[in-house]
Amino acid sequence: MKTYINYPLKHLHTFGTDVYAPNLLVIENDDDLVKLLNDGFLQKDYYILGGGSNVLFLRVPEYVIVIRIKGIGVVDENEHFVWVRAKAGEIWDNFVGYCVEQNWGGLENLSLIPGTVGASPIQNIGAYGVEVKDTIQIVDAINLITFEKRKFTNNDCCFSYRNSYFKSSDEKWLITEVLFKLTKKNHRFVLNYGNLINELTGHTISLSTVRQRIIDIRKKKLPEPQLLGNAGSFFKNPIVDASVFNDLLPCYPDMPFFRTEDNKIKIPAAWLIEKAGLKGYRVGDTGTYPMQPLVIVNYGKATPQDIYHFSEIIVNKVFDKFKVKLEREVNVVR
Ligand code: EPU
Predict the structure, then answer these.
(1) Which of 222, 292, 294, 322 to mutate for ligand 1's pocket (most ligand atoms within 8 Å of CB)?
(2) Comparing C-alpha atoms, which of 227, 238, 121, 228 is closest to residue 180?
(3) Which residues, listed in sequence order, are joined to residue 45 by a DSSP beta bridge?
(4) Which residues of 216-283 form beta strands (DSSP E)?
(5) Beta strand pairing status for 2-8 and 63-67?
């Protein structure tokens, strides 16, 4: 296990703030993992970091643990499907790219999402009408208190919009591996989200063309973390009761919305933020991204506290105008 003292986290999390880990532990293989469990690190103050694409460090715990265990393998296949496992430290988009190259379908809409495979089930990453829960079969995890190893079925993971058992339960689990079921033929492309189908006009529909268009759309709409620090969507799209929605609709007849399976209404947070006059709003080195105000960006020297205070301004202003409370999607470490 590699260890470092007072290690800068600037390049290990996509907000790119100037924070330091008193101790950084890098877990690269199963032996490192055994050492991590046996040597008492988990009795200390720690945080487990995947790709760092969804975290804001208001405080840095004494030990920051980076999971870099890699490996992809086919577990089973038949004429129609392939079951592929990927270790937690695989970079998510490399894994998606690999699956598309093999002509395995199911993950192409999730192209270019930052982060690692191990982080993907935690908040049930989703984009362009697809969520990772749609392909996950088994999540292998270790309980960080009892060290119990468990295989979670898709059902056990209690997936919902940007949420899972791993995010909502008080128990602490370390995800080590994820098993996906992907298609080998007769792929069911999901193209009905936004303008995706229009973007594909003139192209043959294949896994690689869909992946490429998604990459193009994301690059156009979302800031690249290497150029402008951010953690993707900072807020979730709020899901409100029909009564709240019915009160708002007469005042805002152009409000976009989506009905959820449980008869609630999801309203795009980007729309609420824009209508509150906060699209491209900036305070010092923190602001909402002018192309997609759901994303909060670090223009350079913003501290985690600056970013957090800025997000509070957004929450309060949106609440004052719409009486809808935005919830943070990003993991805030306090
Ligand atoms: N909108 C505006 N103004 C804007 C942008 C969007 O009013 O400037 C409204 C429009 O009505 C638009 C709607 O918001 O139709 C939805 O916008 P968009 O398609 O960009 O998606 P989103 O709901 O804002 C979600 C995910 C993104 C994901 C996109 C595409 C959440 C919290 N975010 O954003 O995920 O890429 O859909 O599927 O659900 C992430 O989680 O980090 C992330 C980037």
Answers:
(1) 294
(2) 121
(3) none
(4) 229-233, 239-240, 258-259, 265-266, 282-283
(5) unpaired
pLDDT of the chain, 334 residues: tens digit per residue:
999 999 999 999 999 999 999 999 999 999 999 999 999 988 999 999 999 999 999 999 999 999 999 999 999 999 999 999 999 999 999 999 999 999 999 999 999 999 999 999 999 999 999 999 999 999 999 999 999 999 999 999 999 999 999 999 999 999 999 999 999 999 999 999 988 999 899 989 999 999 999 999 999 999 999 999 999 999 999 999 999 999 999 999 999 999 998 999 999 999 999 999 999 999 999 999 999 999 999 999 999 999 999 999 999 999 999 999 999 999 999 9
C-beta of residue 283 within 8 angstroms of C-beta of residue 314: no
Spatial CA neighbour of 288 closest among 267, 266, 317? 317
What's the farthest any 2 CA atoms get from each other in the chain? 61
Q: Which helix (H) or strand (E) holds 315?
A: helix 304-322
**Alpha carbons 122 and 118: distance in angstroms, whole number:** 8
Q: Does 108 qualify as catalytic in the annotation?
A: no
Sketch the domain layout of the chain as residue ranges: 2-67, 72-219, 223-333
CATH: 3.30.420.40, 3.30.43.10, 3.40.50.11540, 3.40.50.300. Which one for 2-67?
A: 3.30.43.10
Helix (H) / strand (E) containing 130:
strand 130-131
Using a 6 Å CB cutoff, which residues line ligand 1? 127-128, 193-194, 221-222, 232-233, 236-237, 256, 268, 270-271, 274, 279, 292-294, 329
Q: Which of 255, 271, 279 to mutate to test the pocket of ligand 1 (most atoms within 8 A of CB)?
A: 271
Q: CB neighbours (10 Å) of residue 45?
A: 11
pTM over 0.90: yes
CATH assignment of 72-219? 3.30.465.10
Q: How far apart are CA 207 and CA 188, in angstroms?
A: 10
